[in-house]
Amino acid sequence: MTTTPNRRIFLSGLVAAGGVSLAGCRSETYLPPDYGSLFGVSDALSMGAQRLILQRQPLAREFAPSLISRGFPAIGTTLPEDDAYLRDLKTGFATWSLPVEGLVRRPLRLSLAVLKAMPARTQVTAHSCERGWTAIGQWTGVPLAHVLRLAGLRPEARYIVFDSVDGWYESLDLFDALHPQTILAHGMNGAPLPVQHGAPVRLRVERHLGYKSIKFINRIRVVESMAGISSGKGSLAAEFGYSWYAGI
Amino acid sequence: MGTPLQHPRARGGKRHTLLVRVAHWINMFAFFGLLASGIGILVAFPELHWGETGYPGKTPWVSLGMEANFDHTAWGRNVHFLSAWALVANGLVYLLSGLIGGHFRTRLLPTRHQLSRDHIVEDIRQHLRFRTPPGGHGPDYNLLQKIAYLVVILILFPLMILTGLTMSPGVTATFPELFTLFGGRQSARTIHFIAASLLVLFVLIHVWQVILTGAAEQIRAMITGGSSATEAPE
């Protein structure tokens, strides 16, 4: 069949086209950390294309509270099997605190009370799960940009890494981390964040699929590169074969 | 062959131009990549909803009657988007060249003759009798065949791409109009499924027709281009 070489030429053309469009851009906002594979080609194209059309940082659509879904599936971990977590749960997270560390001028340790006292944003958004379903929820939390401003990013800061009490980790580059709808949510549908949805604090990243909005956050790290973090692919989801860039 | 379905052979002696042949096979690989991975993605939530929302626990429009299967989401999404980029890039080249080079006008646009009432009636009658003219006589497509190709190229594939993009939270942040166009993300997902099913139906009929009209000769022509010198036995 003459088709295979044609297809190969076409694919390598795609790679070349991707490379050309990337030249001259800050690579961290156009290339995902997990681009080094065949699928990395399409991941990089999707991310690059979306970063181009998202340059003006539009907000994801928000809904009236009357449209909040009656059901909201909770997937992944719904109750972490961690002794310290279960103790915190019993005390209403009274002694729980969230460290913000790494490439910051002022490392922080934020209690839940302090987080709840910070300026909050409430948004009613559609949660699009990678499994295919969509549900609308209301989220209340501190804009991540506010916390990062308090901590003071060092100039070499590029990625924000979120560790979860269940061993999961996720990361954002600054393009998404500083977006106004990217919040550390401590409330859902007008009540404290329920356990199955990631209490006491989860991430909300509204221009990505659900798996980017990691639950049960217990540490925030600011780093220059994802290279030194676990496999270097940027998230545990990426290690399981899901693309790091989840805007599609 | 003096039937009213036959028309003068198009230029060049080749039945299919190189660009059409390359585009056809890239499209075939991309389509099957999209189809297989699309099924893999679908089975993680084997039900269809209309409107903005749809989730396990909400009454669906259609349930596919199977257990949700999450084993195929990760590879499915990877193959889906790689294939989608290939299909879109290939499709753009094909569309532009077809519009500029006259491929659509000379081969796919129904002729005035074909649009006469007598011809339309005759064409439908021939189709209803499942009377298939032998293949190997050039790409002079009949009216219903032209309409099928145009519907696939100009309606179903663009619909697939637009409903696909409506499921992307990144794209819809910039183009929320897509939600308005299709009536919500779950509506877009349902239309994506329906259009995909129609494309599968097209492929089945397409392959059936290729077999009926001489699969070996038809496939050879789509690879080598075929030429008037080596065929036309009459």
From TrEMBL, chain A:
<dbReference type="InterPro" id="IPR036374">
    <property type="entry name" value="OxRdtase_Mopterin-bd_sf"/>
</dbReference>
<dbReference type="InterPro" id="IPR000572">
    <property type="entry name" value="OxRdtase_Mopterin-bd_dom"/>
</dbReference>
<dbReference type="Pfam" id="PF00174">
    <property type="entry name" value="Oxidored_molyb"/>
</dbReference>
<feature type="domain" description="Oxidoreductase molybdopterin-binding">
    <location>
        <begin position="94"/>
        <end position="225"/>
    </location>
</feature>
<protein>
    <submittedName>
        <fullName>Molybdopterin-dependent oxidoreductase</fullName>
    </submittedName>
</protein>
From TrEMBL, chain B:
<keyword id="KW-0472">Membrane</keyword>
<protein>
    <submittedName>
        <fullName>Cytochrome b/b6 domain-containing protein</fullName>
    </submittedName>
</protein>
<keyword id="KW-1133">Transmembrane helix</keyword>
<keyword id="KW-1003">Cell membrane</keyword>
<feature type="transmembrane region" description="Helical">
    <location>
        <begin position="82"/>
        <end position="104"/>
    </location>
</feature>
<feature type="transmembrane region" description="Helical">
    <location>
        <begin position="147"/>
        <end position="171"/>
    </location>
</feature>
<feature type="transmembrane region" description="Helical">
    <location>
        <begin position="191"/>
        <end position="212"/>
    </location>
</feature>
<feature type="transmembrane region" description="Helical">
    <location>
        <begin position="18"/>
        <end position="45"/>
    </location>
</feature>
<dbReference type="InterPro" id="IPR016174">
    <property type="entry name" value="Di-haem_cyt_TM"/>
</dbReference>
<dbReference type="InterPro" id="IPR011577">
    <property type="entry name" value="Cyt_b561_bac/Ni-Hgenase"/>
</dbReference>
<feature type="domain" description="Cytochrome b561 bacterial/Ni-hydrogenase">
    <location>
        <begin position="15"/>
        <end position="225"/>
    </location>
</feature>
<dbReference type="InterPro" id="IPR051542">
    <property type="entry name" value="Hydrogenase_cytochrome"/>
</dbReference>
<dbReference type="Pfam" id="PF01292">
    <property type="entry name" value="Ni_hydr_CYTB"/>
</dbReference>
<keyword id="KW-0812">Transmembrane</keyword>
